[in-house]
Amino acid sequence: MVNGILLMTLAAAMALPAAVDLAVGNPDWRVFAAASGLTFFTGAMLALTNWVKSRNFSIRQAFVMTTSTWCLLPAFAALPMAFSDLNLSYTDAFFEAMSGISTTGSTVIVGLDFAPPGILIWRSLLQWLGGIGIIVMAVSVLPMLQVGGMQLFRMEFAERVEKALPRAAQIGAWITIIYLLLTLICAVLYWTAGMTGFDAINHAMTTVATGGFSTYDSSVGLFGSASIEWISTVFMILGSLPFLLYLQVLRGSPNALFNDSQVRWFFGFLGSATIIMIVYLVMERDWTITDAIRFTSFNVTSVMTGTGYATQDFSAWGAFAAPMFFVLMFIGGCAGSTTCGIKVFRFQVLYASARVQMKRLLSPNGVFIAYYNRKPIPDSVETSVMNFFFLFVAIYALLACGLGLMGLDFITATSGAATAIANVGPGLGEVIGPAGNFSSLPDGAKWLLSFGMLLGRLELFTVLILLAPGFWRG
User: Fold this and answer.
1) 423 known member of a binding site
2) Structural domain span for residue 17
3) Is residue 107 included in any domain, yes or no?
4) Along the 474 residues of the chain, how does pLDDT read in single tens digits?
5) Does residue 56 have a known ligand-binding role?
6) Would you state the torsion angle of the CA atoms of residues 69, 206, 335, 462, taken in this order, to the nearest 10 degrees?
7) What is the β-pairing status of strands 375-376 and 371-372?
8) Is 103 annotated as a binding residue?
9) Which of 64, 152, 250, 308 has the fewest Cβ atoms within 10 angstroms?
10) Would residue 438 count as lying in a domain?
């Protein structure tokens, strides 16, 4: 039933690119109209044939529903791209749709500068919808499923917000309003900075969603505008912070953002990486301090938050830059935001646990407790986070090896696996780096990377639990 309702929503969303193409006289509006009709019909059939009065889900049903949703939506979202004038194969169309809905930002489309406007707005809309989708999922679904330590936010959520807004629907509505307002403000600022209205809307949707799809092959670098880059940097950061904290700020707690340890750690990671890269470019590459601050701030923020915009080919910045950006790919932003990656709170839990373990080694008889946001971390959260780190590394290695078996070179395979599971967008090197794209990869690699995007977006466990035989027993 839920999948059916979401498919009908996706069908309704196809009306926007259809209207855009119809307005400019592009024949692809028929493709969007037909795809919308098919999607709506399928969704209606699923909803009507599975309609039940009770809306209570078991844990197993929630796992199946979440994973099936994020598989069905890109499968149908790919239809307009597969049958448009772009002449994409269904493999390429599915890869593009999965990259959009998962807010990854990797692309197989060559010649975005000349692509139909309906396709461009559809790609941006997919990322925008995927961004709000992952926020709602992080707030309501993942804590319930106890995925990768997300149960930590089930307690925080109850304490911070539920007293003020007791219904989950109200909270979801407020988050959607905040998300929409940020997008509108970003679009207006882009427009005043020199973008056309069409480009401003597209880039605003993919900036706040930390998705990174652009309307040009050269991404944001095409504009060559420092003001546009600084606007983008600010809103990429805003999209990377917990949206529940914005709700607290609006409800009379202006210090909620600054008092949250996860937010402070996020800015610590981001600020440290930016300063280190600025010093490196100035001292070792003879950049001016102005250029170093401008390009480093934008590109470091883009990679760490998983947005994937680019103004320059940062893989050509020298021997230090490539491994630096490779590490930043995995960090991500805060839980409850639009970002992906490992996420900052897991680094906090890991650090607190390691610190306690070192104290125990020094004082075996002492009693030491790991804390997060000045509260004890439950053992179940520590275990979940440790398991997440192990699985993240193991699956990353398997993805990289799988891509290597398909003939990809070392840099392409390792950075491609990283950018898929961390949902970043561009990889490193000449093939899939900021100056390239994923169109030249074999179909098998695109399907494997699509699976990696799904795993990364749904925090690994949500998908992998379905592969366990014990899940289906009983």
Assistant:
1) yes
2) 1-55
3) no
4) 788 889 999 999 999 999 999 999 989 899 999 999 999 999 999 888 877 665 666 778 788 888 899 999 999 999 999 998 888 999 999 999 999 999 998 999 988 999 999 999 999 999 999 998 888 776 666 666 666 666 666 555 545 554 545 566 677 788 889 999 999 999 999 999 999 999 999 999 999 999 989 999 989 999 999 999 999 999 999 999 998 889 888 887 778 888 888 999 999 999 999 999 999 999 989 899 999 999 999 999 999 999 989 888 888 888 899 899 999 999 999 988 898 889 999 999 999 999 988 988 888 888 888 888 888 888 888 888 899 999 999 999 999 999 999 999 999 999 999 999 999 988 888 889 888 889 999 999 999 999 999 999 888 888 888 888 888 876
5) no
6) 20
7) antiparallel
8) yes
9) 250
10) no
- Alpha carbons 197 and 261: distance in angstroms, whole number: 38
Residue 164: what pLDDT?
Answer: 47
- Give how many domains the chain has, as a whole number: 1
Contact 431, 77 (CB under 8 A): no
Give how far Cα 38 sits from Cα of 11, 41, 77, 79, Å: 8, 5, 11, 10
Tokens of 402: 């799988």
Q: Within a 10 A sphere around the Cβ of 167, how many other Cβ atoms?
A: 9
Judge whether 311 lies within some domain: no
Amino acid at 324: M
Residue with tokens 């169109």: 439
Cα gap 243→256, rounded to integer Å:
11
Mind giving me the DSSP string for 324-375?
HHHHHHHH---TTSS--SS-HHHHHHHHHHHHHHHHHHH-TT-----EETTE
Distance CA 213, CA 309 (A): 7
Looking at residue 182, what DSSP letter applies?
H
414 is in an annotated binding site: no
Contact 178, 247 (CB under 8 A): yes
- Assigned token pair, 28: 């692809």
State whether residue 376 is helix, strand or coil.
Answer: strand
pTM of the model: 0.92
Q: Residue 216 contacts by C-beta under 8 Å, 6 or more apart in sequence?
A: 112, 113, 222
Q: Could you tell me where the DSSP H helices lie in 141-260? A: 142-145, 152-160, 168-192, 197-208, 226-239, 243-250, 256-259
In a domain, 33, yes or no: yes
Give me the amino acid identity at 418: A
CA distance 155 to 472: 29
131 is in an annotated binding site: no
How many whole angstroms separate alpha carbon 260 and alpha carbon 270? Answer: 16
Q: Tell whether 271 is in a known binding site.
A: no
